[in-house]
Design brief:
Blueprint lengths: L1 E4 L1 H9 L4 H10 L4 E5 H14 L4 H7 L4 E3 L16 H9 L4 E3 L3 H4 L13 E3 L1 H7 L1
Parallel strand pairs: 1-2, 1-4, 2-3, 4-5
Helix pairs in contact: 1-2, 1-3, 1-4
């Protein structure tokens, strides 16, 4: 499995290092699956942590040592329902050849969750739902 973390899940893992997102990163670091993200997601998570929880920035930076940093796919189209601000995330997940895109953004990604036929084969899930499905 190749798990793509969006900015929301990176933020959550850094802010709550004993939570589910951090647990998934820990398991990825132990070799249970590959962890992927993008520079776009990292910058958004970093910016939001700096504004809200600056003490969590070192946790974010340390966790990123376990991730492969991917680039946006230039050959795929986005689902039309996906807002422009989330398209770089989706395209980077495709570029990383992710099997899963983990997000807490239910408002924007919700219509695509658990519907890989609409997302180029990627299973979009919350971290909680990913863990429930294991």
């Amino acid at each position: 499995m190749r798990l793509f973390f969006d900015a929301n899940t990176l933020f959550t893992a850094a802010h709550n290092p004993k939570g589910k997102a951090a647990f998934v990163i820990e398991l990825g670091g132990a070799g249970h699956w590959m962890l992927c993200t993008s520079a776009y997601a990292i910058e958004e998570a970093r910016r939001n942590l700096a504004a809200k929880f600056p003490d969590a920035l070192p946790v974010l930076m340390e966790s990123l040592t376990r991730f492969e940093i991917g680039h946006e796919s230039r050959t795929h189209a986005c689902p039309e329902s996906l807002p422009a601000k989330d398209r770089p995330i989706y395209l980077a997940a495709l570029g990383c050849r992710a099997t899963h895109l983990l997000t807490g953004d239910i408002r924007d990604f919700g219509p695509l969750m658990n519907q890989p036929d609409k997302t180029g084969g990627i299973l979009v899930q919350t971290v909680s739902h990913f863990l429930e499905c294991l």
